[in-house]
Amino acid sequence: MLSKVQRAAVQPIAPQTVEETGISQGLIPDLLLRQAYFEGAVTLGKLAERSKLSPTIVHWVYRHFLKEQLWETRAMVGNDYEVSLTSRGRSMAEVALKKGQYAGPAPVSLKDYNRAVSEQGIHVSVTAASLRSAMSDLVVPEHVIRSLGAALVTGGTILLHGPTGNGKTSIAERLHRIFNDLVCVPYAVEVSGQILTVFDPLLHKPEVEQPPMDSRWVLCRRPMVKVGGEMRAEMLEPMVDEVTRICTGPLQMKANTGILLIDDFGRQRITPRELLNRWIVPLDRRTDVLSLWSGVSFEIPFEVLVVFATNLALSDLAEDAFMRRLKNKIKIDPLSVDLFKSLVQGVFHKKGIPCAVETEEYVAQQCARFCPDGLRACFPGDIAEIVCGTAIFEQREPTLSRDDVDRALNVYFGH
């Protein structure tokens, strides 16, 4: 895996005036009113930190609010002012809260977001060596490496298919390792006066040291977003919480400039036909049209590497006209005997359990007997877990005696 990480080419400059933020001027006062309302008493420095706005902008709002008698100065904390809302200010804050309870970092404009995403689009530069390095903790057949490499360089959607348990999801989850650069992701985006949250700490991995840039953006690794059977059609559009009125960006917006893995494709709450109908234009033209709850439609770039993983037959997913748009179809078959034995050795070595050559042979033979359809990549790891679990229960060190292996196999295969 590549260790040297490149800084993002896009590093927005911090705005020093309300106009330079590019967002509606009324959003910033409403945001600071909500933050002051929730805090009770707060310093201007704390407001600047929470809103990710420059002290210059926060001080401008401070002077404006003093003039309008919306808040009062309570005390000096060092060289900073501590402020709180007046009764009039609380009334204004309550009006702002009815619009929405979002009180996080200030959003960026849709125009700035679209430009940044387009400039940070995915441009894959991968070799056989770097792809093998990204998959170094897996046993991947050479023909799969070649097919994956060609698909990544060519571009377009990737569909990993084949019988269950052969490592489709594991392979897909490691594709983000091929990227060695960083991207800027905004905390939120303004669209027609509404705020959509984009940054998700569960999906975006920020760099520890952030450069001196517009703090409304976060320097991150390219995102890897995974969704499985819980996926619904509503997750592809901005969603508003009915209680807080906070609007969250859809999956593809959070995955922009990175990878979106649709695992167990065909088992979602949205059918494959519905999903492909929804994305027929984005997959071809790299742009997507979204709609707010208010009915406002807007366009964003679709700079996403979409990876589907399924164990269903391709004919069960969609008709040929739809499948044609999934350009790269790569079948992940069961492992050969040699690769399977290599995986057995690697799994037990990682567990700290010595594994003799004859044990590798025996595990492979027995797995083939229990599962005539082929040697699946999931077998060694699952069997190792049972061996270790049995040893822990019996308060002894795990071993790979013939009896240990047989017991694990019988438990695993249910015979």
SSE layout and pairing:
Layout: H1 27-39, E1 41-43, H2 44-51, H3 55-67, E2 71-77, E3 80-85, H4 87-99, E4 108-109, H5 110-119, H6 128-134, H7 142-154, E5 158-161, H8 168-173, E6 182-186, E7 188-191, E8 194-197, E9 217-221, E10 224-227, E11 239-240, E12 247-248, H9 251-255, E13 259-262, H10 272-285, E14 287-291, E15 297-301, E16 305-310, H11 314-317, H12 320-323, E17 328-331, H13 337-350, H14 357-370, H15 379-393, H16 402-413
Parallel strand pairs: 4-7, 5-16, 5-17, 8-12, 10-13, 13-16
Antiparallel strand pairs: 1-3, 2-3, 6-9, 7-8, 11-12, 14-15
Helix pairs in contact: 1-4, 2-3, 13-14, 14-16, 15-16
Which features characterize this protein?
alpha/beta; 17 strands; 40% helix; 5-stranded parallel beta sheet; 415 residues
Alpha-carbon distance between the termini? 41 Å
Q: Describe the main β-sheet briefly.
A: 5 strands, mixed
Mean pLDDT: 91
User: How helical, in percent, are the residues?
Assistant: 25-40%
Helix/strand class: alpha/beta
Shape: elongated
Counted by DSSP, the helix tally is: 16
Which residues sit in consecutive blocks of at least 5 with pLDDT less than 50? Answer: none
Strand order of the largest sheet: 4-7-8-12-11
Computed CA radius of gyration, to the nearest angstrom: 27 Å
**How many β-strand runs?**
17
Strand content: 15-25%
